[in-house]
Design brief:
Elements: H1 3-9, H2 11-38, H3 43-46, H4 60-69, H5 87-119, H6 123-146, H7 154-163, H8 170-188, H9 192-209
Helix pairs in contact: 1-2, 2-5, 2-6, 5-6, 5-7, 6-9
Amino acid sequence: MGLLKLLTSDPLVFALVAIPLLFSVIIHEVAHGWVAYRMGDPTAKWSGRLTLNPLSHLDPIGTLMLFLAGFGWAKPVPVNFNNLTDKRKGLLFVSSAGVLANILLAFFALLFIRLFSSSSSGIAVILVYKVCTDVAYINITLAALNLIPIPPLDGSKILLGITWKRTPYFLTRLEPYGFFIIIGLLYLGILDPLIGLFRWMIGTLIGVLIP
């Protein structure tokens, strides 16, 4: 559900959801930069991107898409994979970091629902449930979307990290056109089954951790 639809249906929940969702895309990018820094690449740190300050991260189109379509992005954190101590592991770990950050945010949102709803009742519980449900849903969607192995999405670099030199490098050559390919496939609904599969996998994992 796009945030603009939520604005018209429940402005209070919109106000409470908008900020954590904007920070969801920011945390996704900071996670990439932080893991890269820990593995030997200071590019993100030198660029001032290891911060939660929205002004350092927000992309106008990505933010607009978050409001319109329920998913979006921040400006990509710069990473020089040649600086990493282990390039293969770096591709895998750095690229997975953003996805894992979104999964953790969804996990904690759903865990908070479980803990809060079991100890309280009333309007506050309903409000917390709505906010945390939206936060969890969009973070799961962000994680699922980024797992698609089409550049520049994280899934393409995760695939390179897993298979290393066996992966056709046409994926890297697709990157300049990848954004338009992704938008087109999303518009046509071609990616919906794959996103649904990744959502189900992530939801199942969280369900195991929060029985």
